[in-house]
Write a structure and sequence with these properties.
The protein is α+β, with helices and mostly antiparallel strands. Helix content is 48%, strand content 17%.
Length: 816
């Protein structure tokens, strides 16, 4: 160790460049390893999950592309075990929320209603209680430890009571379970046995989640003990709807739902699978790319070490020769150089660990992660890096250095440079470094440009100055709520609808009258009459819902101006894309035409057509929409929210005023308030943050490459001083010398660009293909990165080349 310290002390610049490059590379690698471990560790805390699968509904509706949802109708539960012997058990889970009184107000918490066998599927860590008995009574509930502390001040809450305000029933805590880690797909909250009276009501309701394929109230889980049965079951449920139609006949079921069926998803695959079908989660490809970024950063730093060590081989040639003269063997020297490399990497590893600890909070904020510096993972990883990278990076330089012959080295005044092969190898390594850095930088610019495009995407609606108030339990108080919200200072409009950004509910299949084959799946929106002005929708033809006309609204029986002897035809408004999907040659031709839902004989007259509105995210295709009118204070079965347009006041203050106004009317009913700009920010915030993360990675990669380039420039310039002196004596000018030296270093960077361009183009084209709305991939980011990388590289070597080119030839040749 003393010998290593002495060598590093004599060669401070060499040591600083190597340690800095390795520390940066190791910090990126460790950070990315922690992120990859976090993402691939989703739901790993749950034991015995290999046989657990979620059955997703896959809609294959006529005239529409297949669409998978992470929910299902529970109608299938009655048949699955009968049809497939490989399924040993099923579980139904209804995810909901419930209000609980806390201090002087109310708080809304997640609620999971499930079958009694819930804990045989999900074995949660128990803090207190018995999971086998937790759901044996309808009034028993299981709660997480965080809720036990919140409401009771202790995790030993078994036996304590809790009143759920939504149903007014008092429950007894039968189990307290440990809160799951942050990387989980589930938020169970309070867990209770689904009420038996609820099941009875659902079974007697014609179109409930227990009797009708078109209703998807929650998640359906199956246990398949033998993995070999999965493929057979998957094939059998792919067209399961027509096998057990809830409609009167198979023909009608196929007319309603086409060839829809179920799809099995393993529990540990949920996180990546949900992202792939557009329901949240993280895309597996992005996680793999982040892992490759970390691995490439580490490889870049190791390449730096190899380059520097082999380039400096001549400087240590005399040392090697003297050791051999004094009796040292080649294997002694190899061991010495490997030991130096491992010590150097170990020193850099602990510096890199410090950098990771300093940056982890910011990294978590960028990616929405909750990554921690787990010692049980990080410390063994650093040991592996120190030994592995130290050995791999030090092996080649060790054999190069130990191969020098003492007589040849001591007989000449010049130091060996390693020959043409060594120079070629260094150029290849420099090229690989810059290839990775340039490709990553291009990806960064493209992702940033796409995020900006999404942020300013034309959606066909006004999005500023709107706050969404979503709450359950307000039925019957609509008039009081409307008056109170309108009285809040700054409020311009108050409307009700189940449509707002990221809240676009699918509806059903609609048929154009007289053309039974012309049908399309349309998203259904229920809107009050002011919705058009609230969002600034534009009419293409016809009119909007008129409060004075009863046939424009649902629940016509309550209208006094409708004649009982005239068949009721309800007015609806459709989007331009819906008109196209229903087969109208021109959008305007849809005005006044009759359509109907496949599962409902009520005729619907199209009274207006509006321009298309984009309420879903940028990854999802534009959806055709049909709008039903509802009264602002009337009853509706739709899951509607209050939507408020305000002006002349900042968002935070207005949101506080609206919350206070709500509590005046319904103090026991908590609301979820969010602004439309905040909802839409999720469309681009993740990609923008990931682009920033990639930007940091590319900056570090370029920095590491430039550190190595700087070190190599010092070596090459010093090694060619004799040549430079002779060239100047023979008439070479300063600019000729500058051009000669610069091209030697710029050439590998140009080659790196030629390799990085198609690589980055392919990666970004694949990534952009996941967006329905996307930018056009142009050469601009490629040219910008090439220019920047070339300029940075030129500046890196500028000092050394300028000094060498300006030095008088006499001073140079006197040193030879």
């Amino acid at each position: 160790m003393r010998a290593v310290t002495r060598i590093l002390a004599r060669q401070k610049l060499y040591a600083a460049i190597n340690i800095a490059g390795l520390a940066l590379g190791i910090s990126v690698f460790v950070t990315m390893s922690l992120i990859v471990r976090y993402e691939f560790g989703y739901d790993a805390y749950l034991p015995n999950t290999d046989s657990i699968y979620r059955a997703d509904i896959v809609w294959r509706l006529p005239g529409s592309a297949p669409e998978e949802w992470p929910v299902a109708s529970f109608f299938a539960t009655s048949f699955l075990k009968q049809d497939f012997a490989g399924i040993s058990d099923t579980l139904r889970v209804w995810p909901r929320t419930t209000a609980i009184r806390i201090r002087n107000g109310a708080s809304r918490e997640p609620l999971t209603q499930a079958d009694a066998n819930f804990f045989s599927f999900f074995h949660l860590a128990v803090v207190s209680g018995n999971e086998t008995q937790a759901l044996t009574r309808p009034d028993w509930i299981a709660i997480p430890a965080s809720l036990a502390l919140k409401y009771f001040g202790t995790t030993q809450a078994v036996g304590k009571t809790m009143t759920l305000l939504d149903d007014g029933r008092t429950h007894i805590v039968s189990l307290v379970y440990a809160d799951p880690p942050a990387n989980t797909s589930f938020s169970f909250g309070i867990i209770e046995l689904v009420p038996p009276d609820f099941i009875r009501r659902q079974m007697s309701t014609p179109e409930s989640g227990l009797t009708y394929w078109g209703s998807t109230p929650g998640t359906l889980w199956v246990r398949i003990p033998n993995e070999r049965d999965v493929d057979t079951i998957e094939t059998g449920i792919a067209r399961y709807v027509t096998r057990h139609p809830s409609a009167p006949s198979v023909a009608q079921a196929r007319a309603y739902w086409g060839d829809s069926g179920l799809h099995l998803v393993g529990l540990r695959e949920l996180h990546f699978h949900d992202a792939a079908i557009g329901w949240g989660g993280m895309h597996r490809q992005l996680v793999v790319i982040l892992g490759l970024v970390g691995l490439s950063a580490l490889a870049t730093a190791a390449v730096n070490y190899v380059n520097m060590a082999t380039a400096r081989a001549g400087i240590r040639a005399r040392e090697v020769a003297m050791r051999k003269v004094l009796g040292g063997t080649r294997w002694n020297l190899v061991a010495q150089f490997l030991y130096e490399a491992i010590c150097l990497v170990a020193s850099a590893a602990f510096i890199g660990l410090s950098l990771v600890e300093l940056s982890l909070r910011s990294i978590n904020a960028l990616g929405g992660w909750h990554v921690t510096l787990a010692p049980s993972f990080t410390l063994p990883l650093l040991v592996i890096i120190s030994l592995g990278v130290g050995t791999l990076a030090g092996l080649y330089p060790a054999f190069v250095l130990s191969s020098f012959r003492p007589a040849a080295v001591l007989a000449t005044g010049r130091m060996p440079a390693g020959g043409r092969m060594a120079s070629m190898l260094r150029n290849v390594l420099v090229t690989s470094q810059f290839t990775f850095a340039i490709a990553l930088a291009v990806c960064t610019l493209v992702m940033k440009e796409q995020a900006y495009f999404v942020q300013h995407l034309a959606r066909g609606i006004r999005t500023d100055g709107i706050i969404i108030l979503d709450a359950d339990g307000s039925a019957g108080r609509e008039s009081a709520i409307l008056q109170r919200l309108r009285a809040v200072p700054g409020v311009l409009m108050v409307e009700r609808s189940n449509l707002y950004p990221h809240h676009l509910q699918s509806g059903g299949v609609f048929i154009r009258e007289g053309t039974g084959a012309t049908r399309s799946e349309l998203a259904v929106g229920h809107v009050s009459s002011g919705f058009l002005d609230l969002y600034g929708l534009q009419l293409v033809a016809g009119r909007w819902f008129d409060p004075a006309r009863s046939d424009d609204f649902e629940d016509p029986a309550s209208s006094s101006d409708r004649r009982s002897d005239v068949p009721f035809v309800q007015g609806v408004v459709i989007s331009a894309l819906a008109a196209q999907r229903l087969g109208f040659p021109r959008v305007e031709d849809a005005y006044g035409q009759i359509i109907r839902e496949a599962s409902d004989p009520t005729p619907l007259r199209i009274i207006g057509i509006v321009r298309d509105v984009r309420l879903s995210g940028p990854h999802d295709s534009l959806r055709p929409v049909i709008f039903y009118g509802i009264r602002a204070t009337g009853h509706t079965t739709a899951d509607v929210a209050w939507q408020v347009r305000y002006s002349g006041v900042n968002e935070g203050l207005e949101m506080a005023r609206l919350r206070a106004a709500w509590e005046d009317i319904l103090p026991d009913t908590p609301i979820q308030a969010q602004s439309v700009p905040d909802i839409l920010s999720t469309d681009y915030r993740t990609d923008r943050n990931h682009s920033l993360l990639f930007g940091i990675g590319s900056a570090i990669a370029i920095g590491i490459a430039c550190l190595g380039l700087y070190g190599l420039s010092i070596f090459h310039v010093s090694h060619r001083m004799h040549e430079i002196g002779i060239r100047k004596v023979l008439g070479a000018r300063t600019r000729d010398i500058l051009f000669l030296l610069s091209t030697q270093f710029i050439r590998p960077i140009i080659i790196a660009n030629l390799i990085a361009w198609p690589l980055a183009w392919g990666i970004m084209r694949h990534w952009l293909d996941t967006f329905d709305q996307r930018i056009t991939l142009t050469p601009i980011p490629f040219v910008l990165v090439t220019a920047a990388a070339t300029l940075i590289a030129a500046l890196t070597i500028a000092v050394q080349t300028w000094r060498a080119a300006r030095r008088p030839p006499g001073a140079t040749l006197r040193q030879i």
